[in-house]
Specification:
Helix content: 40-55%
Shape: globular
Distance between the termini: 9 Å
Mean pLDDT: 94
Low-confidence stretches: none
Number of helices: 5
Order of helices and strands: EEHHEEHHH
Structural class: alpha+beta
Strand order of the largest sheet: 1-2-4-3
Number of strands: 4
Radius of gyration: 15 Å
Largest sheet: 4 strands, mixed
């Protein structure tokens, strides 16, 4: 598992992303979700999803009052599947911020936000976007 933290200064938002998550990482992520205020059915669903250790899944949880989001991307079966999971979870992240900050989801500001988030996530995500790089990364662990 790789952890990345970055800020979106324009909105005072902090994002934590966990990449290549497996069933072994469940406790840490559950503590993080609880810290963010996740509870009830959302927390139970997250636990059920994460504890199975299923590949090609993810989740995104935001505490809009604290302006903080947790993104989880499990291990994926291929670089293309990683791109799919990344886009999916990044979409949730950007929608949460857009709703909280009253950003028109069809306007330019929403697209600039998505571009900024994509650039920040790329710093880590690039290791998973090439099947050869992924094999090398996982062979080291």
């Amino acid at each position: 598992m790789i952890r990345q933290v970055f800020d979106i200064p324009k909105y005072g938002w902090t994002v934590t992303v966990y990449y290549a998550v497996t069933g072994y990482d469940v406790r840490r992520i559950m503590r993080e979700l609880e810290r963010l205020g996740c509870g009830g059915n959302d927390l139970h669903r997250a636990y059920a999803n994460l504890s199975k250790g299923v590949i090609n899944t993810g989740l995104t949880y935001s505490n809009v009052e604290e302006r903080e989001t947790l993104v989880v991307i499990s291990r994926t079966s291929s670089a293309a599947q990683f791109q799919n999971s990344l886009d999916h979870e990044k979409g949730h992240l950007c929608r949460h911020i857009s709703q909280a900050m009253h950003i028109d989801p069809y306007g330019e500001e929403a697209e600039y936000l998505a571009g900024y988030v994509g650039q920040r996530m790329f710093e880590v995500a690039r290791m998973f976007l090439c099947d050869t790089c992924r094999r090398n990364l996982f062979n080291k662990t």
